[in-house]
Amino acid sequence: MTALDILFIVLAVQVLLGGFDNLWHHEITEALPGRVSARTEIGLHAARELIYAGAFIIFAWFQPHGWLALLFGAVLVGEIVITLADFLEEDRTRKLPPFERVLHTVLAINYGVVLALLTPILWDWFKLEGAGLIVDRGLWSLFFTAAAIGVFGWGVRDAIAWRDLNKRAAGRTEPARLRPSERTVLITGATGFLGQDLVHRLTGRGDRVIALSRDTLKARALFGPRVDVTDNLDLLADDTRIHAIVNLAGANVADMPWWHSRKQLLLDSRLDTTRAVLALIKRLRHKPNVLVSASAVGAYGDQGETPLPEHAGRPLGVFTADLCRVWENEACHAVKYGVRVCRLRFGLIFGRDGSAFPKLALGRLFGIAPQFGDGQQWMSWVHKHDALRAIEFALDRQELAGPVNVAAPAEVRHGEVMRAIGGRGLLMPIPAALLRLGLGEMSELFLASQRVRPQRLQTAGFRFNYPDIKTACRDLTGKPKAGCETAKRLHDTTPV
Prior knowledge:
This protein is α/β, with parallel strands linked by helices. The protein has two domains: 3-169, no CATH class; 178-260 and 281-305 and 335-490, NAD(P)-binding Rossmann-like Domain (Rossmann fold), CATH 3.40.50.720. The chain has 17 helices and 15 strands. The strands form five sheets. It has a seven-stranded parallel β-sheet with strand order 5-4-3-6-7-9-13, sandwiched between helices. It has a two-stranded antiparallel ribbon with strand order 1-2. The protein has a two-stranded parallel sheet with strand order 8-15. It starts with a helix and ends in a 6-residue tail after the last helix.
């Protein structure tokens, strides 16, 4: 076995470990391409991936000589600079899971071994005349070509994500507070899908915000110095003036299959935070005026053709309904402290990022759209912009308390939703039996029929900006413009 073969084996390990790290950590568990706070990290990833793509092509088919060999080595050493910058950025913007941190360390050490093995080889190539040779290294050439194609595609994808995240960051830039208020709002789940934009909306209209987040690095990177960040409500003093609380914390019900441990996590992630909020309210000398607590239309279970205003009955023994019931009941304990409690039951929230919409709309690229079951089940949804406005509305309207449905008023069946999302694409039915077989109890998320009506919101005077699915899809599938979200926030501070 030659020194080059040993190098290629070590490099293949780097390819496999790096691919796993990208897929599992960067994409699935951390979802970095959708995080504004991770835009610099994503840019560094794109640069590193494009360097790797070029290096793999060279290893596959070319042997550089003379100064080209030294230039090739210098580029690979430059990757170390990018990696160090990436480490610093990670430490600044997010809290790495232990396994990801260990894997990054292993990758760094392995890359050092690659450079150590490559250095004498490059020196030998440097001493050869000419620009270099075209070579065929058999299976290694095929392997590194495949790796180059894969990492190049990933690099382009990350570069596009970096560009889009910077546009979103520009759109979130807040001007000076023209109308400062005396109100302080505590937001739990502040770095989540709704929480991030809610923080920006409230600070944009002059409110002071306290953000609760398990990842304080991420929160501070997202919000900057204008937002107070904490990871523990016990650290807030008893004399802290908090006028309103928005409780959005809770693990995503659609992220992973509903194993028993997952169900327990979904429950605990909601109850633990809600109980911490109640403990805070109990000891505060000045009680907040309102607690707006998130829930979901899953509270109604599968009720077929039955219209579902807020007073509709709810089933027992259905996981989503039981989960929402326990969560809402816990939040209601704040009433005994004189706090107005508003429980917002959100439909499926459609946004450009961090929601189900991009996944459902993926088929547009291929001219198809998935349809779950026969498509006749009623589907309750709401545009993200209207969901955020509904939270503000609940904060401001003293008469609004108890359960409040937050779903678009134009009732629509699942098949119609998918036709609107898919554009001119063909519907591709996925049999209900197949979903139940593959997802078990979790299939109710896709098959349950919920004809939810936002009766209390509309009675109170709330007007939806996106009342029907076609209007929402035109907005969500259109090309976003930098700064447009800021303008929308500034001209929409009155949520009716």
